[in-house]
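#data-curation
PF: Archiving a pair of folding outputs for the training set. Convention for this channel: one message per protein, sequence first, structure tokens after, nothing in between. First:
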Amino acid sequence: MEINIVLVEPQIPQNTGNIARTCAVTGARLHLVKPLGFSIDDKKLKHAGLDYWHHLDITYYEGLEDFFKRNPEGKFFYFTTKARRVYSKVRYPDKCYLFFGREDKGLPEKLLFNNEPYCVRIPMKGAMRSLNLSNSVAIGVYEVLRQWDFPELINYGKLTQYDWEKANFFN
């Protein structure tokens, strides 16, 4: 099973570092669409995901046109505060791509308009603008993995009743 995270023009190196770490520990592929608001060798980026960076499957693109040219057959889902559909009500197929936009602007309006049936949102209180980008990515990734029963990840939910009692988690 394959999950892809696409960051379109990320601006904050710490967010991208945290997202890289999430990708590394879950096996998700990371796609970075330029222009980036930082340098890849930025200390803040490396610090946030330093000991995980070598575990990443990461691809860079010159822009969205380059991304779609190189990935024409993807199953794309666009995370945005403007969507009607809640992210957890969607069935995510193998080899899906979860798109996330800039911290300050989100995804381009034209992209959202042209792909409205595939736009999803994370519910929030109405007066709030949005969640932090790295938190949003983690929510999206783990929803997909939950639907797939966490393939290739340690899943403590499969412990037997005896294991739970022996572990004494609740005493």
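PF: Second:
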Amino acid sequence: MKSDFLNIVLYEPEIPQNTGNIARLCACIGAKLYLIGRLGFILSDKYLKRAGLDYWDKLEIEHINTLDELIEKNPESGFYYFTTKTDRLYTSIAYKKGDFLIFGPETRGIPEDILNKNSEFCLTIPMKKCTRSLNLSNSVAVAAYEAVRQFGVILD
């Protein structure tokens, strides 16, 4: 079951430390974490666990086979795809509680076919043109806290 607050989706994440950091972030803000498809690590990985510290019992996490499966289970929700391949800023959206923020694997991002199918929902975080991308866990933090800011929520 999705979070009524915020849902973070990692599509085929590759680096356990990033996923651990993101899991810790999700625990701290009350977001649910979805891992989609093939993972570049096993969920018992020591680096994943170390990066998440002692927050694992405060986290709701689910591993799902496909992104389509997640979308089919949540047809009323908003899905936003974070990529460097658009000019639409992540701050241009009015996020709603229960939305899904989707991030691709560290080395290749969300696949082009998924981005093309959902181009009106693709968002980017601004950065200098001479740089390739932000670290995945930094990108998730920037986007998630924009949604939290818009919700006007003081986390307890």
